[in-house]
Design goal:
- The protein has 19 helices and 6 strands.
- The protein is mainly alpha-helical.
- The chain is elongated, with a radius of gyration of 31 Å.
């Protein structure tokens, strides 16, 4: 049987069932129920304080709302598309429970400011949850870096071997990315934490409400300054999706490296069996499905950001029904990012570094060619000239299929008489790493200090 609509007074015909099904959002916005009830409780207390409802009515409403929450918590509540959204479901259930007093709860508010409040309350919780999950991932990264703090690996540019770096230094680069991610979410929280309730449909209300009292009850540090903006603003949601997208960029980059490093071509790492899968046809396969899926889910999150940007583009003020499309993108992003962060933290604890393979890789690819150029600079050879000399030495090695360390002193001196016997100390990977003492460099002392600083920050 069709439900009576709260806005039905102006209409002669009942809403088409097709329209009810098309416009309904209850199948996804039902997750807002605790926030809708939390906002309604605060609104009710304010109405009673302002004498817009009686104390008895306030008690009835509060008891009714708490009973409804308990029913939904225990999965005993019946949802129907004819009631469209979570707000109408709760209001209808309240009136059924307590009678006419329930009809007074919507005094001085609209579903426009109500849903904006619900989403902000929801997102405030989820942003803080994500901040905590990022911290756990940082802890896993730092733990892995600490376990292998002495391992030297090839650093890459253009996916070509470039210079020796400490593996811990490489991992701490991701720590810094995640640190910026946390900062972004903390900043986003400032914009989320603004109360729109009391803006009503778009113009505010002529009734004597107290918005600051509601803000205090709901722990909002500030209230919206413009009622039209308050009900039509989804900047905070777009900002959240943008922050999630940047986070997923970082995790996708790390995923790509873990996938490469676990391949036979690299063999730098072994991901624990519990975080890999096999092939239905090839018995030998061990696939890095977790980082692959994370890499793929980055596109999913990016899509949600683009979706909301497109929904909001060119919308006239104030509220438009298009904005109902914000929630599925928002909810799925929250779920996706939370799952990704959780599984990633666990997976990093099950990664083993194959020291022998990494050490072998460091010995090849002319990783200390820059160190040889620096050696010549310290002997008063202009850098460009030193660069050219070392380039010719590398070409000489390539033609003979050998490495810099395979050359004799006599061979090296053919390219520059400034080269002496101490050159071989300079072109060791260990010496190369030790020499990188500029702030933020890969020298062991600096990396250990960075590890300690990270561990301190995470406490």
């Amino acid at each position: 049987m069709a439900q009576k609509k709260p806005w039905g007074g102006r209409f002669r015909q009942k809403t088409s069932k097709l329209v009810e099904e098309f416009t309904a959002s209850i199948h996804f916005d039902r997750r807002l129920y605790p926030y809708d009830i939390e906002g309604s409780l605060a609104h009710c207390r304010m109405l009673a304080r302002q004498k817009l409802i009686t104390k008895d009515e306030s008690r009835l409403i509060i008891d009714g709302l708490r009973a409804i929450k308990k029913e939904i918590d225990q999965d005993q509540f019946i949802f129907t598309p004819s009631l469209e959204d979570i707000h109408m479901h709760i209001e209808k259930a309240l009136v059924d429970k307590i009678g006419p007093a329930g009809e007074k709860l919507h005094t001085a508010r609209s579903r426009n400011d109500q849903v904006a409040t619900d989403v902000r309350l929801y997102l405030r919780d989820k942003v803080q949850e994500i901040i905590g999950l990022i911290k756990k991932l940082q802890q896993s990264l730092v733990g892995l870096a600490r376990r292998y703090s002495d391992v030297i690996m090839p650093g890459y540019t253009h996916l070509q071997r470039a210079q020796p770096v400490l593996l811990a230094h490489h991992l701490l680069a991701y720590y810094e990315m995640l640190k910026r991610d946390r900062e972004r979410f903390f900043e986003c929280l400032k914009r989320v934490n603004v109360l729109p309730l009391g803006s009503a449909a778009l113009a505010g209300t002529g009734l004597p409400i107290d918005r600051r009292y509601v803000a205090k009850l709901l722990d909002f540090p500030s209230i919206s300054a413009n009622s039209i903006d308050a009900v039509s603003d989804r900047d905070f949601a777009m900002e959240f999706l943008a922050d999630c997208s940047i986070l997923m960029v970082h995790l996708s980059r790390l995923s790509e490296e873990l996938i490469l490093w676990s391949s036979s071509e690299f063999s730098f790492i072994e991901i624990g069996d519990a975080f890999c899968t096999g092939s239905s046809i090839m018995p030998q396969k061990k696939n890095p499905d977790v980082p692959e899926l994370v890499r793929g889910k980055a596109g999913r999150v990016f899509g949600h950001l683009l979706s909301l940007l497109t929904v909001m583009k060119a919308l006239p003020l104030a509220y438009n029904r298009d904005m109902q499309e914000d929630k599925e993108a928002l909810f799925d992003t929250v779920d996706t990012v939370a799952r990704v962060l959780t599984v990633y933290s666990a997976m990093l604890g099950q990664i083993e570094i194959r020291r022998d393979k990494v050490n072998k890789a460091v010995q090849k690819g002319f990783l200390t060619a820059t160190d040889l150029a620096d050696y010549l600079v310290l002997r008063e050879v202009p850098f460009r000239e030193a660069h050219a000399i070392v380039g010719r030495i590398v070409r000489y090695c390539l033609d003979r299929g050998c490495e810099l360390t395979d050359l004799s002193l006599d061979e090296l001196k053919k390219f520059s008489d400034r080269i002496e016997a101490d050159v071989f100390e300079y072109i060791r990977p260990e010496k190369s790493v030790e020499s990188r003492v500029s702030t933020g460099g890969t020298a062991p002392g600096l990396v250990l200090a960075a590890l300690k600083a990270a561990e301190k920050e995470l406490k």
